């Protein structure tokens, strides 16, 4: 598996960025043709779509509220910690891509200053699940960026060799990403275009993260057994943080997160104990 993931990483090229850049261009042209570069017009052209999706998707509040937590990097990445031992190259890419996505997201939110739905509309006019978000940082959706950053890395690093399974794998990841990102509309936190822009930026971040580790080897130490105590301590600290989340919100996704971190800590402990002594 480790050798296969290295091959998959080496297959990723700058040309992979063409598709997301073309998609960004298409959406930008759509906004231009609708004369929606102003904040009010941007909100107006997607108001009906927002209300429709929000009301329809909010019919499953518990599911939506749990799934939207995967836009939190801590939660999503914690579910992937068992792969640290078996596929360290995946985690090298995830760390790089996550850093890149964070560097892209914050400046764009500051630049566009689009109000959140709760700031643009009366709270009683749509469904809010969980915490109501206010302010002017709606574009792009940070949760959508995180979701597609992680999923893009998982998609490309774990890409099957067989063409049939490659199609199934890609379709599954894309559909999963769409479902997870639309939860941001369901909970009333973002507009649809916020989510679309965030998803594309996340895809770009994932590719850039893979290209970064392909060129630079600064995270190669992650898969080395002598460094496992660092991750064991980090995971136990994360479990404590996860328990605080459970106490505050008691969502089942937080239980899965803590369980994953516990299993990962156990695997690392066993691997560290059984590693060849020098």
Description:
This protein is mainly alpha-helical and 278 residues long. It contains 14 helices and no strands. It has two domains: 2-220; 224-278. Helix 2 packs antiparallel against helix 12, helix 8 (88-112) packs across helix 12 and helix 13 (228-249) packs antiparallel against helix 14.
Number of domains: 2
Order of helices and strands: HHHHHHHHHHHHHH
**Approximate strand percentage:** under 5%
N-to-C span: 26 Å
Radius of gyration: 20 Å
Given helix and strand content, the structural type is mainly alpha
Task: Tell me the number of helical segments per DSSP (H or I, 4 or more residues long).
Answer: 14
- Uncertain stretches of 5 or more adjacent residues: none
Shape, principal axes of CA atoms: globular
Topology, number of strands = 0
Which percent range fits the helix content?
over 70%
Largest sheet: none
Mean pLDDT, as a whole number?
Answer: 95
Key terms:
2 domains, mainly alpha, 278 residues
Question: In terms of topology, how is this protein built?
Answer:
Layout lengths: L1 H10 L6 H16 L5 H6 L2 H11 L3 H7 L5 H7 L3 H4 L1 H25 L4 H4 L21 H16 L5 H24 L5 H24 L12 H22 L2 H23 L4
